[in-house]
Predict the structure.
Amino acid sequence: MSEEDLHFMRLALQLGERAQGAAWPNPAVGCVLVADGRIVGRGWTGPGGRPHAETVALARAGAAARGSTAYVTLEPCAHHGRTPPCCEALVAAGVARVVVPMLDPDPRVDGRGIAALRAAGVVVDVGCLEAEARRAHAGFLARHAARRPMVTLKVAASLDGRIAVASGIGRWLTGERARAWAHRLRAEHDAVLVGSGTVLADDPDLTCRLPGLSRRSPVRVVLDRRLRLPLKSRLVRTARRRPVWVVTRSSADPAHRARLEAQGVRVELLPHERSERLADTLALLAESGITRLLVEGGREIATAFVRAGLVDRMVLFHAPILLGAEGVSMVGGLDVPRPDAAPRWIAVEDRSVGEDRMLVLEPAGETRCSPAS
């Protein structure tokens, strides 16, 4: 690939990021149309997955698309849905060349888009910035390959790994800028998950409160096996304005379930009465279209996801304070017999956020959902 190809694919990936958290169940795709070294059209996936990035870019380019090169961050679709296939739209517009980093794993596509383009005489190059694209589409890939969303665990902790003082007094460890980043994470994910204990203790609303991004607030999910979600909680009182899903056992109190549903809460039942596996919850979310899940619960939830090997990324905000041994640790027991058996993580991003530090980590080895950028 030429330097020009790399440059425009990076731009396409940046455009695709604008749709993260809003495009589900579809992937967040970016597209750049280039003619004679000049961008003539660009687009990214619309809310709810429509319109597709290619459709938007072609509409903006108009007649200038003829003879252009399209840089698309995922193989153009080849199936008829609510709109015609993007591969057909590219051919009809007269696009001469298409550059993609990777195939679309959706069985309705999976090479068919590329084959259709080539059959129509369009030059197709595959593999440009594939690692970066796989990282960008990690949630979409996980939903197809593993029947679960990509999981990001967000933790705010002191330097000595404590998330709260023993008494629970005081809500924030980090500063305002770090908390703003946490809200940005919500906007970039399809759903945010907490346990019922967090709801009972903190009564959170779990929305994105950044200016201009409130409409990007995620689906709010409560893992509540005993169905304890109070009717007076903020989540229930706002369920008609922003979706709230509760995952519980089939034996949960049917009367309380009916009361919650009457307030607009969606109640999802685990498949087996004694099911305790987080994988069951993640499968339910994936079946409903969720591709990117942000986990914000306390120590119990964080420990459960880490123990199950279901954390694809951890975003760790370190406040420059020490809370001591009396504080609440960020994770509970992991039954690690020796240091070389401990879960190991690789830092893929490290930055200052006001007075705090933000680390983005991914599991080392084969459990990683995608290559580091």
Observations:
- The longest helix spans residues 3-17.
- Residues 367-373 have pLDDT under 50 and may be disordered.
- The first strand starts at residue 30 and ends at 35.
- The CA atoms of residues 26 and 49 lie 5 Å apart.
